[in-house]
Design a protein that fits this description.
The chain contains 23 helices and six strands. The protein is of the alpha+beta class. It folds into two domains: about 260 residues, 2-methylcitrate dehydratase PrpD, CATH 1.10.4100.10; about 130 residues, 2-methylcitrate dehydratase PrpD (60s Ribosomal Protein L30, Chain: A), CATH 3.30.1330.120. GO terms for molecular function: lyase activity.
Length: about 450
């Protein structure tokens, strides 16, 4: 048995998931839909919509961010781009990816097409997420440090399994979908800070749908392509990929969403800034200081994180999301970061070179990273030098939102409403999403997708 066959077998052998796993899946889907709504007017989303308009048709079932309908693969691409557009969507360490920004739009497009229920959507999400974790386990972390964007590589492949399951494919069909998706895997981190990065998520969502559609027609490549010569491991694995443990895949009983989890974001910017921002929150809770008190800020992160943050002096909102200097300076001004801090006008207003110059960004050496024990994480550290001579320091190994420090219901609602400020019934929709598995159809999601409830009703 090869890796793809093992993953496909696992996907077809799950009669049910725990109450905890289902709740966490509902929360992740809710978070992603809020990010999708908030990102629908971003330049990247508008550009992808405009480029895809020739595919739009009122006869299609699949709804689009910003309104309109299109075939499933196009809807997945448009909505996936919107879900990742403002970089507020969750992180998923096992896949080195923004797992849900690929998985939820891909599943939602197919769910619209087949009139799936909320319960089916939740289960398909859990299957696709675990498949992403399985794929990622063979190449993490060297795949990511080599420069691949796991969202559009691992995310695409694993999501294809969830989509194939939702389409009703059997074990062999899911295996075909996984194999097909390997040929679609693409996207490098060199595109971070550009409008192409959100498109990576949209393209991966489209590719997941296409891979499953081809599998439904019995199109397939090599079923051993993950670990075959010139396959995914050899070509994409990086310097030291661990490879896959097939018995461990087959013996997985606790879902990854329970053991590791997806990490919703508290801040609408690159996750490589988040432990620093959260450490600043920790310092503020312990010490009395203001923006005017701060002379310099020194930040220490991992090598891959530093490479992600390539814009010390951003010139637009996309670059600002990948600028440690902008994010820290904005936090110092406001005590928090919000969606409104990453608009063209706001970035132009706040980007003051003299203020940003007081914030430095460093990374660990390769030797220091190599000394990190297996299973441990690097500490991201922030050091404030204050005008009164005090030095304040804090560090974090995990950002808020992890399984060890999860969002409260109030945190989740606060983020949802921050994303949905233009929606009059956001709180009501949030409560309905908390009962997602009770929904017989998904027409109630219409306000998130630019339609009235009447227009969005399915039938």
């Amino acid at each position: 048995m090869n890796v793809i066959e093992a993953i496909a077998r696992w996907c077809c052998s799950q009669p049910d998931f725990s109450t905890t796993a289902r709740r966490k899946a509902r929360e992740a889907i809710t978070d992603t839909l809020a990010c999708l709504y908030a990102g629908q007017d971003d330049f990247s989303s508008r550009a992808v919509r405009a480029a895809s308009e020739s595919y739009f048709t009122p006869q299609a079932r699949c709804r689009l961010a910003g309104g309109g309908r299109a075939p499933a693969a196009i809807a997945a691409m448009v909505n996936g781009t919107a879900a990742h557009a403002i970089d507020y969507d969750d992180n998923f360490a096992p896949g080195m990816s923004h797992a849900s920004a690929v998985l939820v739009p891909a599943l939602l497009a197919v769910a619209d097409d087949i009139h799936a229920s909320g319960e089916q959507l939740v289960k398909a999400y859990l299957i696709g997420l675990q498949a992403q974790a399985f794929v990622g386990s063979g190449v993490a972390p060297s795949h990511y440090t080599a420069g691949w964007h796991g969202t559009s590589t691992v995310g695409c492949i694993g999501s294809a399994a969830g989509v194939a399951w939702l389409m009703g494919l059997d074990q062999a069909g899911i295996a075909r979908a996984l194999s097909n998706a390997v040929s679609f895997a693409s996207g490098t981190k060199g595109q971070f800070g550009t409008p192409i990065k959100p498109l990576h998520a949209g393209w991966a969502a489209r590719n997941a749908v296409d891979a499953a559609n081809f599998a439904r027609q019995h199109m397939q490549g090599r079923i051993d392509i993950l670990d075959a010569p010139q396959g995914f491991l050899e070509m994409f694995g990086g310097l030291t990929p661990p490879g896959w443990n097939i018995p461990a895949i087959l013996g997985t009983h606790f879902h990854v969403i329970e053991t590791t989890g997806v990490m919703p974001k508290r801040h609408p910017c690159c996750g490589s800034t988040h432990m620093i921002i959260d450490a600043l929150d920790d310092l503020r809770a312990q010490h009395d200081f203001s923006d005017d008190d701060v002379l310099t800020v020194d930040t220490l992160v991992g090598i891959a994180n530093l490479r992600n943050l390539a814009y010390p002096l951003p010139v637009n909102e996309m670059q600002a999301r990948f600028s440690m200097q902008y994010c820290v300076d904005t936090w110092l001004r406001n005590g928090s970061l919000s969606v409104a801090d990453f608009t063209p006008a706001r970035v132009a207003e706040l980007t003051e070179p003299a203020r940003l110059a007081r914030i430095s960004l460093r990374c660990y050496t390769p030797e220091q990273e190599a000394e990190t024990p297996p299973g441990d994480r690097l500490t991201h550290e922030v050091t404030l030098t204050l005008r009164d001579g005090r030095t304040l320091q804090a560090g974090r190994k995990l950002a808020k939102g992890s399984n060890s420090e999860p969002f409260s219901d109030a945190d989740r609602l606060r983020k949802f409403t921050d994303c949905c400020t233009t929606m009059s019934n956001a709180s009501d929709l949030f409560r309905q999403l908390n009962r997602l598995e009770e929904q017989e159809d998904l027409g109630f999601l219409a306000p998130l997708l630019g339609e009235s409830l009447r227009d969005g009703a399915q039938g």
